[in-house]
Amino acid sequence: MQNDAILDTVRTLVKGIDPALTIHEVVEPTLPMMQALGKQFPRLGATVDLSFTPDRIAIVHDSSGKTDFLIVNVSKGTLGLTELGLLHVFAKILLPKFAIQIVPEGLSGDLVFLLMATEISSRILPYGNNTPIIIGSLCSESDEARRLF
Amino acid sequence: MPGNDSAPPYAYLLGLITAKGTIYPTSKKIAIEFPHANNHVNGIATCPECGALATKSRGGVGLTCRGCGVEVDDHLRVRYEQRASTLKSISEGIIPYVTAGNSIQSTILGNKSVSVMVLDFKDNAELFAKILGDFPVELNYWTFRIPSKMWRGSDAERLAYMSGIFDATGYANVGNWIPRMGKNGQERMRVYIQIVRNWHLTCDIDQFLRNSLSCPVQTIDWGHPNIRDSKLEDYRTGKASSGGREHQIKVYPEYLPPLSPLLSHKKQLLGDLLAHNLRCEFPQEYGWFPPTPIKDNQRKPAHPGESDVRLPVELQKHFDASWQISLALGTKDLVEYASKASSFEAFALTGDLKCAEAAGPLRARLNQLSQYLHQGLPAARKIAEPTASPARQRAYLEKDTYPVLIKLLEKELVARKQSKPIVLDTSARNLNSSIQHLSKGQLAHIDVMDSWSIRPDIIAFTDSAAEPILVEAKIEPLSLAHLGQILAYCAVAAPKRAILVSTEPVSDALRRTILRYPGILDYGSGSAVEIAHLDGQSINYLRF
């Protein structure tokens, strides 16, 4: 159920960000899988060294057929500033096409106000070539996934 | 409609913004916070036998009738689901009401304890400019004042404005009664407006209720140490900040004008409390204004928190009564009232219009009295330290690094010719003594970090530079999670320097990662987190 919801959420968010992108697959990575993916995407190989495994990896193709990957994390509770800081570091290292943080329990009140302030969000959300981390709600039976930031 | 100055929905929106709003001029957005810390809130319960109020038994689980004393079934109490009610009311009531006829996008963010309504005015720059015009100086409810047009608004506007304030920060909690006897019952219910931090807005709302809505304010419970912790209980038991950050304006619901809250549970609770007070038929009360003279037995002991530099300058002194704070903050009708006194200063100290005692000796006498009362307090209870296992007691803890790091950092800053560095251990229970010498800009930084619950272990300031130096200390090998934490702090605090230090040497894996991806230490404007090793009594910065 959660798996389906995450998959639907990723599809919805990606469609909203870049409709030309097609999702090939979304996997829950294991260590051997990360090693294998590391051969295709060398930066993903770094995660093995860093004891970091994203909750999901999505393999995507753009309109020209180029393959890329997204990293997806799912917060266990309310998303706070420190957890977002961790994804920020990993996104800087892995440089995924998109880094997505799904927040089934929402964001902390403080974080909402901090991210609304562009001078702060511009320091914590962008990575790589100024690509912002995407924060989205988890879709449910009653609500579609939404990009929150 | 909000586009029309004279319409109640616009006034209601201004009320929401005043009480809990933050304006983001760059993105043309406004966020309004609706807290709901508990999932549900209890309604009133009455005894099925005698009809009197039933309240929670002290230390017990059930309810007890305050009239005939019988136990009352807890299920007789209505429970309002705050969170569900808030979300539904925002989406079905508030958003349609404030956006009707205007191009305003809206969304609701938050979590189980707070909902944040975000209004996006990117398609309605004119209306956004109008709102900015009503809050010309400040951008946040911590410092907003009542917009000038609301003081001169029509009855309908003033009511709508106060309804907005009530929806955002009004509370109709059953537990807020005070002991009073009425013709047909007892325990008089109060509702309160809770203002976070904002001292002057509290004065504004107090005056607005009294003078613009003819609603007497029963009292103001100020978040000043003399009022909130008048017996120094918090202070003596080592609680970090005995002065609260909120102020509560308390009123009897029967004196409120007919407000129209849009949060359904607040509307129902307000109705419940009002019905109780009307049924009990309490005698008329006229509120705290005008004040009555302070009797000697109402004087309060001196509180060390009175001099806290985080208080507004005019409030960094001793107060014996709530109204004295209102006077010090310049509450207009109180200042006018005080101007009739034989001596303004003597009135400010006593509340007696006829008191003509010379202010100097009077102040000295009262100061002596507050010191005497302070000395008469029972001895401070020993602060209970958390019990630790013998193994943990022997262990070297993170906090053990702070004194060493503070000394090293002070030495380093002096060596760099940065005179008078101020280095603070933020885990200290009472920061006040350490922050007395900070400049206004430096204090503002401390305040911002405190507000957003950002607690680096050590904060330092050099000379008059407002930007802090943040230090995060660890006693385990540094990881990328630690780096993520300090980078997140840096995003908010934009420090001059940020230092991540551990008593453990930096692992090869982290060293390799930083060498391979040096940009991961960057936190903007060419600044990068400094990684260091605390090796005994020396600190070694790693060069990458």
Task: Explain how this protein is built.
The complex is a heterodimer of chains A (149) and B (544). With 149 residues, chain A is an alpha/beta fold. Chain A has one domain. Chain A contains six helices and seven strands. In chain A, the strands form two sheets. Chain A has a five-stranded mixed β-sheet with strand order 1-2-3-4-7, with helices on both faces. A two-stranded antiparallel ribbon of chain A has the order 5-6. In chain A, helix 2 packs antiparallel against helix 3 (42-49). The longest helix of chain A is centred in the first third of the chain and has 16 residues, at 2-17. Chain B has 544 residues and is α+β, with helices and mostly antiparallel strands. Helix content of chain B is 36%, strand content 18%. Chain B is globular and about 80 Å long. The A-B interface holds A 46, 49-52, 78, 81-90, 92-93, 105-110, 112-114, 116-120, 123-124, 146, 148 and B 22, 24, 26-27, 29, 31, 33, 35, 107, 109-114, 116, 118, 452-454, 479-481, 483-492, 494, 509, 512-513, 516-517, 519-520, 523-524.
